[in-house]
Amino acid sequence: MTGTEATSTTAALAELRREDDVLVVALGGDWTLDHVVPRFPDLVSRSTAVASRVRSVTIDAAELGEWDSSLLIFLMQVESFCEKHALALEPSTLPAQVPRLLALARAVPERARAKAPDRGSLATRIGDAAVGTWRDALSAIRFTGEIAIAIAGLPTRRVHMRWREFWVVVQTNSSGALPIVTLIALLVGVIIAFLGVVVLKRFGAGYYVSYLVGFGMLREMAALMTGIIIAGRTGAAFAAELGSMKITEEIDAYVTFGVSPIEHLVLPRVLGLFAMMPLLTIYADAVGITGGMLVSASLLDLSFKQFLSGLLSAVTLSDALLGVFKGTIYGLIVAVAGCMKGLQGGSDASAVGRAATSAVVLGITLIILANAVVDWLAALLDI
Fold first, then answer.
1. Among candidate residues 155, 297, 180, the one with its CA nearest the CA of residue 231
2. Is residue 218 part of a domain?
3. CA-based diameter of the chain, in Å?
4. Which of 44, 338, 354, 383, by CA, is between 20 and 30 Å from 101?
5. Model confidence pLDDT, tens digit, residues 284-323
């Protein structure tokens, strides 16, 4: 902002003088950020014109040239001095814009620095974490119950699901997921076979690599790796989609029109992933066993017939069915975790990222936990 135009560029000047009981602050020169401007506290400390008999302060801006915000800073220092010493300020000769700008500056208070929250004692933090975990668990149980009720209502036609959305999820997690599932399952099968060759060959038992590959892929690794892949791929997508819909208030619009978000948005995703995970697990089984077979044939001179014969003599149908059952459970976990985190997300710009991250972390954690529980039950039942 520019005040009265000066004929030449001069440095900012300020001096104090006494006129009876009035302290006059005379301003001159150009008060711009290009110049070094005086500070009023420094002038007061060096001046002998300030005494207890001063009753008011006036500004003499007759020689003022160009000015910008640096002049306002100086005048605010003058105002602070007057308020501190109970003096009247008379800015009568200032440009017309200055009083309005000073009033605007005083109308916006300086933002107070937020104090760091008190974290409390260790016992307090542990208690808060326990209460938060308990509330999250109750929320997850409630959400899962709502999904179960919606699924139970499908045969009686009390629940109307979007079948088009269901088939989209099926297509996305069938042909859309095959490349990454193929790559990971093949590499896992190759790794298990390499491990078996290195260990068993030392004991002259290389033939039994087929046992290791069969048990490893059918019972554990095919379902586990497929579940983790789907958690990072599809679970994050579910959370991001529903989180974006919540930010744009589409979820609130569904509720306003009497449409259940569980039936309209969550159910197609849960059932679509529930239907495809067993098939993806079976496919991962076949690809992983093929990778192990290739390694065994190249390093142990085992024919494909010998490899399959050894595998079928050790692995039973219950082993394969257990892996498929695990894959189905993992699919439900990933779908429920992704949808729940998406619907529970915040309403700010970063909420979608947080929801996707939380969905992946929760999905993988629950997959590992479910794997341990299923293996424990299988050991108890001798499966």
1. 180
2. yes
3. 116
4. 44
5. 999 999 988 888 888 877 777 888 887 888 788 888 899 8
